[in-house]
Amino acid sequence: MTPPERVWILDTSALVEAKSALSVADQWQTFKQLEDMVRAGTVALPRLVIREISEIAHPDLPGAWAPGVRDIQQHPLDPEWEHVQRVMAEAGDVVDPNKTKDDADPYVLALALQLALQGLDVSVVTEDRVDRNRTPFCHADLRRRR
User: Where are the domains of the chain?
Assistant: First the structure.
């Protein structure tokens, strides 16, 4: 299979936002397209995103969809630990201090870092709006630090 031009890493917040941004009818079509993109390797999501979106009390379409794409994903569900450690060392503020379970955010960034270091063009899709990160850690930084 030909590597994709770009890989979109989905954060839980983007999946949640889809519920309010799209009608129910449009959600079905959109999530079917996302499933095709997961299968093609252009969309990826870490295991903790799948867990966060599917372990709510009454999962809706995103919560039911995410576990179904776990086995067709072309990229790792779990980024290598060294990349998680690097994210936490350089941008540990991405973790919400009020969460009682593991936060998916550092794993989203670690997967993006891992794929970028493999030479893929990576974008993170998120709707997070709280600025907990006081040290910029972005894709441009990843390329400079290789």
Answer: 6-145
pLDDT tens-digit readout, 55-85: 876 668 888 999 999 999 999 999 999 999 9
Q: How far apart are CA 80 and CA 77, in angstroms?
A: 10
Q: Which CATH class is domain 6-145?
A: alpha beta
pTM assigned to the model: 0.81
Q: What is the DSSP string of 98-121?
A: T-SS--SHHHHHHHHHHHHHTT-E
Half-sphere exposure of 145 (CA within 13 A, CB side): 14
Rama region for 23: left / alpha / beta (φ>0; ψ in -120 to 50; rest):
beta
